[in-house]
């Protein structure tokens, strides 16, 4: 099997597991929507304030949804001992990382369609203007989140790590991605798509760094 075939096989396996379990639709999406509604209610009736804070609230909801998605990507494998099988399998561990990250990206992008539409309805911001730039921002931001979460998500099934270490690792490392995504989304919604280009370039750079780091380090974390 080639490197690409191995990665595709891992991604396909994770997506089939999600389709059978419906974790994203049954748990993650309602949680993210509840967060958005709570954020909206906490801001009160000030529409201007709601529109100004919409990009940050959108990406906070995406972040919370992504954390649950990262946990779900490894939970089933931790329960039936499949992680040991991944460790012993004669496959490139970098391909395993890319496959799991790819599955997470697909799940998150599907969830984000509903989250973006709900954000537009709640906060009165347009979701169809500058659609290519908005899609690029969501995609690049999602790749960055998925790269970090898929790398360190394996620690959630380690007996010595569990819940305590994962949030401490994931939040600082994803902060640059969240900031760049919020800035780019805000500029695009304000009709300044051209000004968002540097932030999109920064997101692309973050994605490249995180993906390369994940390919290099995933095998070591899996062994631990």
Number of domain units = 1
User: What's the total number of strands?
Assistant: 0
Structural class per helix/strand content?
mainly alpha
H-E string: HHHHHHHH
Write the layout of secondary structure elements.
Blueprint: H1 3-21, H2 23-43, H3 47-80, H4 82-88, H5 93-123, H6 131-152, H7 162-189, H8 197-223
What does this protein structure show overall?
The chain is an all-alpha fold and 224 residues long. It has one domain. The protein contains eight helices and no strands. α3 runs parallel beside α6. The longest helix has 34 residues. It is globular. The protein starts with a helix and ends with a helix. The model has no long low-confidence stretch (mean pLDDT 81).
Q: What is this entry, summarized?
A:
The protein has one domain. The protein is globular, with a radius of gyration of 18 Å. The protein has eight helices and no strands.
Overview features:
224 residues; globular; mainly alpha
